[in-house]
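SEQUENCE AND FOLD
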Amino acid sequence: MMPIVASMGGVAGNQTLILVIRGIAMGKIQKSNARKLLIKESSVALLNGLAWSIVVSVLSVALFQTSWHIGLIVGAAMLLNIFASAIAGVSIPFLLKKMGIDPALAGGVLMITLTDVLGFITFLGLATFFLLGQT
């Protein structure tokens, strides 16, 4: 289940990243409207994350015959990872541009690394927190 959580965050984050990089390149996105874009993208990510977390939670319980605790952990990790990836997808291009690095060259690699690490940490952290608390 961990690779699913990490990859879904990567997919969502890359979509946001590409949208922002394209907007910056075309001159439609500047620092002045970055906050509005961040709010919009994080709202979309919350809805998207909620929908996918429900689907993955139910499927993990049904297909892998795990407890509902595991399903909730997988769903919560997915929701958090998709949300964090949207924030990163908006932030990374601006940070790279500020450092003088072309976001189109370095953004994807940074995004995938970040979402993979966040996905694994979130999943394992939630699992540790909830499952050790139930003993």
